[in-house]
Amino acid sequence: MSEQPPGTFAFLSIDPSSHPDYSDSHLHVVPLTRPTTCSTHDSVTIVEDANEQRHPNEDPQAEFRQEAYGPQPGEEGWDKYEVRWDPGDTDNPHNWSRLKRWYMTCIGGLLVLNATFASSAPSGMIEQMEEFFGFGREVATLLIALFVAGYIVGPLLWGPLSEQFGRRPIFLGTFLVYTGFQVGAALSRNTASILVFRFLGGVFAAAPLTNSGALISDIWDPDTRGKAVAIFALSPFAGPAFAPVVSGWMAVAGVSWVWIFWLLACFAGACLIIIFLTLPETYTPILLMKKAERIRKQTGDSRYWAPFEREHFGFWKRVENTLIRPFKILFREPMLLAISIYMSFVYGCIYLLFEAYPIVFTIGHGFNAGVSGLMFLPIFIGGALGVLGYLVIWNPRYVRAMEEYAPSPVPPEIRLEYGMAAAPIFAISFFWFGWTSYPSISYWSPMLAGLAMGFSIIWIFLGLLNYIIDAYLFVAASALAASTVMRSCFGAGFPLFATQMFEKLNPRWASTLLGGLAILMAPIPFVLRKYGPVLRRKSKYAPTPSEPQEKKDVET
């Protein structure tokens, strides 16, 4: 079995990664090996060889692949005029040079950085904007909350559209409109207009959160994707951590609030130019369709065709699957619901910190907006250490697990180990932050609590996202989509009550409340580690391994 890399989240909503979802499957390659693809509505999409996942006789979802793919080469009904990738085909993104693929990976990370930077960029300018527009702290919170609320709507649009028209047109179109909304925000002179522009900006900024991960899956094969995705995971952390620093120091320097939005417009415009000049199409079904068109033109033979041209899952069918099926799976699967609630809580806590940190560091320690913004950097550094820890500790362990379980798939519960390790650290980080937040205690202590937060969040998300991917296999895209929407709701909602909670309860008891909730949710990965195989065996959507392997996994 090929290695499966960690999923990612766009702060926090990577996508993320996924295994094949039968409704989205239409990637065709050389005979006898038929990879599958799907879109995720989180940061990363994973392309995996369906033949490596499960023996056909044991696969309860084999009919889904047959419905999506049709017959394989050599089977009855196979059409020799179907256009596929030839071995070594230079048009196949997996055969592009490593330098080119790493460049495109960096571009994907840059686009996610752009989107997540914009989510928290106004935080350093809040006081100026309150004075200019005349609104209170609650309305000011909407500047961040509404942008993140756009992440709820965006993935439901850009995922299906990218599979209908390709990655490149969606990147170009969304960034063009997104740039325009940043200009609109900079020119806004009333509360209603800037709030509308923030929400719409979030909707269109969600495109790279969905499709940058898909781009990575388009260009890297499973054996080489792990490092690329792990490094890519840093970009969702970098944006929200650096934005308060930039906007805070701009405020300290006396720069008007409008310039943070002009900065966002310039950043988005630069990314738009980079996309236009250097980012090719990477989505294999679209590339095969173009290849079929070339062959028909060159040969004059109209019988050549690409699978996408006969794809019976049209756009509206994709939209239906995207809007309805994910939530059916979510509320029918206790495993998925529990994981989604836990990840949503963690995600919401991150955006809650944008309201809590100013109370602790600006009001409590008397820092200006620039220095207060620097307090977010340890969260990013902790995330970077978490990625490094994954590469050094967990990735080699997973490689050994593949060898141990070969030729069978590695049980999904193996993925939960780093979530189990991180869950207590995440809870402790809030007690650490809260009870060292007294002005009489050095600011270094609550600041360094951010290291533990960032470190644990990375491991929790990589572990739980990968568990969803491995456990739900051919419906992972739908499972991740539902989880992403729930996380975005928490991310948009938590900042709305954060200020009142930290002011009424004070930072000590507010953090204690959050730490207590984190403790209550910490057993989730432990419970799934022990009982996951049993729950998957009863699941309608999660394929399970053979009985001996299940017993082995439960006993470990």
Structure description:
The structure is a single chain. The protein has 556 residues and is mainly α. The chain has one domain (22-297, 299-425, 454-497, 520-555): MFS general substrate transporter like domains (Growth Hormone, Chain: A, Up-down Bundle). Helix content is 70%, strand content 1%. The chain contains 21 helices and 2 strands. The protein has helices spanning 50-53, 62-69, 98-120, 126-133, 137-165, 167-187, 191-219, 225-232, 234-252, 258-278, 284-299, 315-323, 325-332, 334-364, 369-374, 377-405, 416-435, 444-472, 476-521, 523-538, 547-555; strands at 35-36, 48-49. It has a two-stranded antiparallel sheet. The longest helix has 46 residues, at 476-521. It is globular. The two termini are 21 Å apart. Residues 1-61, 63-70 and 546-556 have low confidence and may be disordered.
Over the alpha carbons, how many angstroms does the gyration radius reach? 23 Å
Most strands sheet = 2 strands, antiparallel
CATH architecture: Up-down Bundle
Q: How many domains comprise the coordinates?
A: 1
Strand order of the largest sheet: 1-2
Q: Kindly, what is the distance between the CA atoms of the first and last residues, rounded to a whole number of angstroms?
A: 21 Å
Query: What is the strand tally?
Result: 2
Mean pLDDT value: 81
Quick one: CATH class? Answer: Mainly Alpha
What's the order of the H and E elements?
Answer: EEHHHHHHHHHHHHHHHHHHHHH
How much of the polypeptide forms β-strand, as a percent range?
Answer: under 5%
User: If helices are DSSP runs of H or I spanning 4 or more residues, what is the number of helices?
Assistant: 21
Please estimate the helix content.
55-70%
* Residue runs with pLDDT of under 50 for 5 or more positions: 1-61, 63-70, 546-556
Question: What is the CATH homologous superfamily assignment?
Answer: MFS general substrate transporter like domains
Structural class by sheet pairing and helices: mainly alpha
**Anisotropy-based shape:** globular
CATH fold node name? Growth Hormone, Chain: A
